[in-house]
Design brief:
heterotrimer, A alpha/beta (286), B mainly alpha (606), C alpha/beta (375), B: mainly alpha, 2 domains, two-stranded antiparallel sheet, 8 strands, C: 375 residues, alpha/beta, Rossmann fold, five-stranded parallel β-sheet, four-stranded parallel β-sheet, 14 strands, globular
Amino acid sequence: MTILSVSDLRRTFSGVTAVDGLSFDVGPGEVVSIIGPNGSGKTTTLNLISGVLRADSGTIELAGQRIERRSVEQIAEAGLARTFQNGRVFAGLTVAENVEVGLHSTLTAARPLRRWSGYPLLRWVPLLAELALALVPTPAVLRERERITGEIDEQLLRFSERLAPRREDPAYTLSYANRRRTEIARALALRPRLLLLDEPTAGMNQTETAEVLQQLVALKAAGQAAGQAILLVEHKLDLVLTLSDRVLVLDDGKLIAQGTPAGVRNDPAVIEAYLGRRRAPRSVRP
Amino acid sequence: MLDTLFAGLIHGNAYALVAVGFSLIFGVTHVANFAHGSVFAIGSMTGWWFIAERGWPLWAAVLGVLVVTGVLGLLINSAAVRPLAKAPPIAALLATVAVSLILDNVAQLVFGPRVRPFPAALPTNDLRLGGLRFGTSDVVMFGITIVVMAALAGYLKFGRTGRAIRATAQDPDAALQMGIPVPRIQNLAFVIASGLGGLAGVFVGMYTSNVSPTSGAAAGLTAFVAATLGGLGSMVGAVLGGFLLGILEAFGISLWGDGVRDLITFGVLILVLILRPGGLLGTVPAISAEPMTGTFLSGGREIRLRWWHAGLAVALAAIALPLLADRYTLTVAAGVAIYAIIAASMTLVSGSAGQITIGQAGPIAVGAYTSAILTVVTGWSFWPALIVAGLLSAVVSTVLTAPVWRLRGHYVAIATLGIGSVAVAVIRNWESLTRGAYGIRGIPAPALFGEKLNSAVEFYLLTLTVLLVTLVVITRIRASHLGTVLAAVGADDVAARSSGVRVRDYKALAYAVAAFFAGIGGALLAHQYTYIDPSIFNLTMSLLALTIIVLGGLSSPVGAVLGALILVGLPELLRIAPDVRILGYGVLLLLIIRFRPQGLWVRRAA
Amino acid sequence: MRFLPRALVAAAAALALTACGNAGGGAAAPTSGTVYFGVSGPVTGPNAEYGRLWKQGFDLALTKINAAGGINGRQVGLKWEDSQSDPKQTVPIAQKFVDDREIIAELGDFSSPASMAASAVYQDAGLVQFGFTNSHPDFTKGGDHLWSPSLTQDTLQNANVGFVAQSAKKVAVLYQQTDWGKTAFDIFAAGAKRLGIEISYSSAFLPDSTDFRPILINARDSKPDAVVHLGYGPDGALMVKQLRDVGFTGQFFGGQNTPEFLSLAGPAAEGDIITGAFTTDDPRPEVQEFVQAFQAAYRETPGDFNVYAYDALTTVVAAARAGGATREGVQQGLLSTKAFPSIQFGTFSFNDQRRPADPKVRELVVTGGKFVLKS
C-alpha cells in the first residue's frame, strides 16, 4: 500500500502560485527527496502535507486515508511526523521530555477513551480522565510510564552518545546540532508511517552533517522493515544522493523531474532549472 | 428614538477620537497600547488645569496638552515598547498595562482624586437637534475626528512614507533593511497617537464636563473595544467602530437601563473576537507562527526547591507564624494564601500552556458567589459549597472561553479580559440569583466537624491547608505526562500540534483547572470578608493575580507563592496606601518585564 | 540564585518578627495620655472626596474639644486608616484597631457594606463601631456595639417621597446600581405606592457612567412631573445638567449637599430639592458658630459630610466623658446619655435600635448656588 499519495496539489499566496498541480507517491520503506531552487515550493509542500497549510485544491492520502482537510493534530495521529526548517524544539523542556511529547499519540493507559477526542462535548471525557490519571495514576499508567522511559532511551540511542548523556538537560542548553537531533528523535517517537524532514542538516558543518547522514542511513535501514517512509527536503546533494531511493525536482511549484538520484542529476530540465537561475545547488564537498 | 440615536452618535464620537490613536499605534507597531487611556486621562486633567487653574485660552491649552501627551507617548515607547520589540507581543502588552497602572496612579497623586468640572471653553449646549441640546464643542470634536481620520488614513494608504509605515508593522526587520527608519517612525506614531489621546481628553472633557484622573481605565477599554470592532490598525475602522459602539450602547441602555452598560461594551468585544476577529474593516489576524510567550516570559527551568527548603517553609508557615503573629497579621496571611492559590493555578495556564489570562476576576467571582449563595441562601455547609464553587467556576469559565481558543496571538488574552468583565456584569445584573449590587452579607464562617473556624488563626490554617493541597495538585500535574504536554503547548504550539497534541483542548483543560482553583480562592475570600458584592471583582483584582505570576515566574507555582507574599502581604503589613500600592504594582511589573522577564523563581533560558 | 531559598527563609522570619511586635496582649487601655479614636475611611480611591470632607469636620471638632479640656483633662486624637471604603480592607483594619489598646472606639466606614463587613470583628471585641454615614437599615442590627446617628434610608426616603408628593403625581426615578441606591429605590417606590405617586419610568445607573442621555431621554418621554435622582454628588451633577440638555424643564430632586455637587452642577442645579437635616442658613446659634468657624478654617462652605463627622466625634467624646475614657465607658456613655448636642438636630438621642430617635428632616432647595431651607 502506498504510504503517501499526493494528487494535483495546488496552493497560491496572494496571487503567487507556490505549489502548482503537484502529484507524486511515496511507497513503504522508500526515502524520497524533494530538491529544487529556493522558492520552488518545497517547504510549502511539506506544510501542505502535514496540515500546517490548507491546500486550495488537490488530494493527499496517507496510508489510504484522505488528509487534505484534516487538522495538524489529526494528521499526526494518523501517523505523520515532521521536523521543521528552523528546528523547533521545546526549549524549556529537557531532551527526554521533548521526546516524550512525541510519544503522546501512542499512549493508551494515560489517555483512555481517546476516540472521543474528536467530538464537541464528549472530548472532555478523555481530557478529564487524563487529568484524573495524572493526579492518581493507576498501575497501568505507572507501567506505561516505564515503557515511556524505555522508548525515550531507544530513540536517544539512535544518535550514539550525542543525546543520551544530555537526557535531563533543558533543550535551550543544547548545541544547534543536538537540538535538531532532539527534534528528529521526537518525531520518531511517534512511530510514524511517514516522516517528513525539512532540511535536517541546515546550518550544520561538514562533520555534523556527515554524522547525521550516517544516523539517517541507519534510520532508513531500521525503518524499512517496518515500512516507514521518509520524505526529505534537502539542499545538500551528497545527502540526497546517498539516502534517496527517488528524487523529485520542483521548480516554480511544479514537478519538473522525477527519478533515481543519478537519473535526475543528468536531466537537462533539472540542470536548466538550477543553472538558469544562476544558482548552483549547495553541496558538501567530501 | 432619533434623540437616542443622536445621543449615541455624540457619545460615540468621544469613543472614536480615543480609538483612532489606539488603532494608529497598533497599526504601526502591532502593540495594543493599554496605556492609551491613561494618556487620555492625563490629557483631560492637564487641559482642565491649563484652562481652569491657569486661565489659558482654549488654543493655548490644547497646544500645551499636545506637548505634554506627545512627550508622554515618546516616553512610553522608549520605556515600555521599543525595548521589547524582539520579545513576543504579549511582553509589550503587559508592559503597557504596567505603564497604565503607573500613569493612572501618578495622575491621582498629582491631581488628587476629586472630580472637577471641565470648563466649557467652547459652548456645550448652544445648539439643538430634535429634543436634544448639544454644543459647538461637540461639533468641533466631530470635525477634528473626521479631519484626523481622513488625514491619517490617507497618509497611511497613499503617502510614500505612510506605506513605509505600514511595512514596518508587517516586518520591522525587512523595513529596517530597506532603509526605513523604523525607530523614528514608531516614535512618531506614538507621539501623534498620544497627542491625539490628549486632544481627545480635552474635547471629551468638555463633552462630559466631569473629569477625574480615574477616567483613564474606562476610556482606554472602550477605545480598545471600538478599535477592535472597527478593525485594529484601520483609522476609518476606529472611527466607525467608535460611532457604532456609541449607538449600540445608547440603544442598549435605552432598552435595558444603564446598569448593563459594561455588559454591552464587553459583550460587543467578545462577539467581535468570536465572530469576526478582524473587525469591520480589518483583515483577520495572520496566523502567528511564533509561540506566544516562548522562553522570553516562561524562561528556563524553575529553581529547584529542595525538600528540606519546602519543609522548612511549611513549618514556618504552619507552626511558627500562628504562634507568633497577631490576629491582624494572620488575617493578612490568609489573604496571601488565597491569592497564592489563585496565582499558582494560573501558572498552569500561563506558564505551561503559554496563555496569558487577564480576567481571573471572572472565575473568582463565580466561585465566591456560588459558595455565598449556597451557604447563605440554600443553607449548605462550607465544604460541599467550596467544592461546588470550584466546579461551577470551572464549568462556567470553560463554556464562556470555549470559542476563544482558536484565536491567535494576544487576542486570547484580550478575550479573557472581556469574559472576566462580562461574568461580573452578569452577576451584577442577575439580581434574582445573586442579589446583584445589594451584595450578599452574613456569609458564615467555615466549619469543621461542627466547630466554627472563625478566629484569625483557624481561618489562616484553613487557607494554608487548601494552598498546600493546591500546590500538591499542580505539582503532580506538572510531573506527569500531562504536565509535559502542557509545557510543550506553551513552548511551541505548532511543534506540539505536529506531535499529535490537540493544543486547543489542552489549553482549555489547563484553563479549567485554573478556573477551578480560582473559584476555590473566590469562595475562601467570600467566607473571609463575610460580605461580597460585584464591585469587589474588578480589573485590579485580575491584574494583581497576573502581576503575581509575572513576578514569580509564569511557569512557577512556588514563584506564585513568593509573588503573593510580596504583592499582597508586604503592602498590607506595611499599610502602604492603596494608590501607592497599585503604583508599585505597575512599577514592579514594568521592571520585571524589562529586566527579568522570566520572573524571580525561574532561571533565564540561555 | 542559590541564595534565593535562604532569602525566602530570612524574609519569612522577618515577617514573623514584625508580626511579633504587634502581638496584641490582653493589656487594659492606658489611663493617661492622649485618648484615641480609630477612623476607618476612604483617604484614597473613588470615595476619597468624602474622606476629605470627614477630615475637615473631625479636625474642627478636635480643636474645639481639646480646647475645652478634651476628655476629663486628657487630649483627644484620631488614628486614621485608609480603607478606600472597600469591604476587603475594612476587616484587617478592624483587626488592627481591636488589637490597639489605645483606641477606645471606632468611627466609620463610609459605605454601609464596608462597615458591615467589619462589624463582626468590632462586636466580638467589644469595640464600638460608630458608622455615622451608614444609612443601611440593617447596619445596627449586627450587635449592641454598632451605633449609627445617620438617618436611615427608611427615614430619608420616606421624607423624600413625602416632599416629592407635594409637587408631583408622576415621577421618573434614576438610582445607583449599588446597595445604597437600590435600597433607597425600594423604599422610595414603596412610599410612592402608598402616597399614590406613579413611577412612569425608572432605571438603575452605574456610578461611573458619564453619559446618562439615553435613560434621561426615556425619563423625559415618560412625561413625568418631576425627575428623582438617588445617588451621589458627581453622578447627580451630571444628571441634572444632562437632564436640561435633553429638554426636560420640570422639577429635579436629587444630588447631594456637598461642595462637589454644587461646583460640578453649576447653574443647572438651581431649584434642585433634596432632603437633609443641615443647612447653612439654619438660624440656630450653634449652627452659625459652626459655619463661621468652618469658613474661617477652610474657606469653603460646609456641607453634610463635614457636619456628620463633626457631630460624630462630638457624640462619642460626649459618651466618653460620661462613661469614662475606655471601650466599655464609651458603650455605657452611649447607652446612658439621653441628649447629645448636634449641629444637625439641635439635640438628639438614640432609640433602642441605636439609631436617632425622631429625627427632624427638612427640605432644602438650591438657591443662588447654595442649599437653603425651602420656605
